[in-house]
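Lab notebook: predicted structure, single chain.

Context: the supervisor wants predicted structures on file for every construct in the current expression panel, including those that have not yet been purified. This is the next one on the list. No modifications to the sequence; it matches the entry in the shared construct table.
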Amino acid sequence: MTGLKKISVPGKLMLAGEYAVLLEEGRALAFTVERSLDIYVRLSTDGLFRVQSALWPTEFVAASLASESLPETLRAAPLLRALAESQQRFKNPPLHLRVDSKLDMKGGMGSSSAVILGACMASALFGQAPDQPLAIAELAYAIQKKLQGEASGYDVLTQWLGALVSLQSARDTWPGPWQQHLGVEDNFKALIHPFVGGRGAPTIPVMQDTRRWLAEKNAERDLRNLSAELCASFLTVLTQEFTSTHFAELLTANAAHRKFFAPSPHFPRELAAALQKVKGCDQAWTFKTTGAGGEDAILLIGPIKALCGARQVLQERAWYPLNCPFSAKGLAIEDAHDPYL
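Prediction complete. Output recorded below exactly as produced.
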């Protein structure tokens, strides 16, 4: 492999199944959006690893990616951890990379999983690529799990494949049973309206708090059942011809799922209370929190003409619509020209 390559990893949003997918046989639905994290990569010309990222004030330069060679402030950086572990796996020589991300880190769009997956892909491109391409995504999931302590890899799989992806977790295998749903663009555009602009949530502590709350309530079975019903309702509405009966079932399933999470430690109660007062909530339209902390993104669900009041509530609180809500594209690689690299 020679020349400069551009690796594009799409952002993703969770549709249903947060926390349930961390349980055995838990189901989840996620979808990719048009915004992406792009990694420009080529072979190094001086035998050094060089990484440019907007997150760092200066270019990272090192002869080795071994942990003891890195500054302490960067040893836990997902990008460098992924590059180090993927280099061990794929035996690539030193690389020069530049990361250009259009993913809002506060929007639950999968910026960390995207950079890990993109780094693993970069190493595989210039190293000993595996016979099974999904092995690259599997390595990215393993790195994500090490960094977070707990992860399902639903985001990695979704960003690898693209489009609407359903996943059921399994005890000893990854990714478990999955399906990619194509041809749903029109239904998505008509019914699913993501908003971003919340405070964002630190994934690890929020996940730990919520998992502890679920264990104390002994509510894992209830969560698994509610999530399975919600995932099934979403799939029916998004993959079949629209009917008022199916949409009513989705409204009911989503309201029950939201009610379950309302007492959880990081649920956005003030925002939810304001939305629930809007005319037609859970009758003509509904809303769903999504993301580790419940306030990464808000999904308004329903025909746009029914959402005027809900949109106003969100915009008054500095939330704004994500104007690229759906894409069928997964990870992509192309030849590139980059004046900065």
